[in-house]
Amino acid sequence: EETLCRAIYYAHLFDRKVYMTLNTLMKQSELEEVEEFLMPFYKAGLDGVIVQDLGLFSFLKRTFPLLELHVSTQMAVTGPKAVKMLKEEGAVRVVPARELSLEEIKLLKAEGLEVETFIHGAMCYCYSGQCFFSSFLGGRSGNRGKCAQSCRLPYQVKLSGKETNVSKKEEYPLSLKDMCSIELVPELIKAGIDSFKIEGRMKRPEYVAGVTAIYRKYIDLCFENNLQNI
Length: 230
Fold this sequence. Notes:
By secondary structure, the protein is of the alpha/beta class. It is built from eight helices and nine strands.
């Protein structure tokens, strides 16, 4: 708690914002614990929280009225009607489902909420991150913030009881390639997207810093060149 509060104060010295992830599904019995957990950070000036659970969303809106609420990609927002409803409920920003096309994201942006989209990092094999694989395999639920990334492991694929892997090399049939949107930066900026999201879970700090620096460089180049392709 003390370390996180210091981090908030330190970030604000450099005019940077700090958002906290609360994007796990909550049990009814846990809601009271949330208030006690979040209050020190709220008082320290936490800039916002990212939420998946609609019940938690409503609870936070009542309990912490000055706190920005951002809708997690795990809420699987895919259309303008959902954005309109969330705007009426008090959301400030929405992170759409990762499966959406740029044209679909533009429709969400037209509803008047801030839109933040993923541009780089690991992709979830399951729809919008709503996966039960880790939970079924080892009791670690991805929807409770404990994903063991079971999809990243090697597996044998069999057809009619026979292995399909002729080379006998390890295969990773469920592990997707990382997203990389560096060439689409001009289009994403023109679409009016407010914030870009770089996925860095279980990544080393050097990886996150390096990737962030590269995107910062090319975003700035876009503006310097009047959003022409780079």
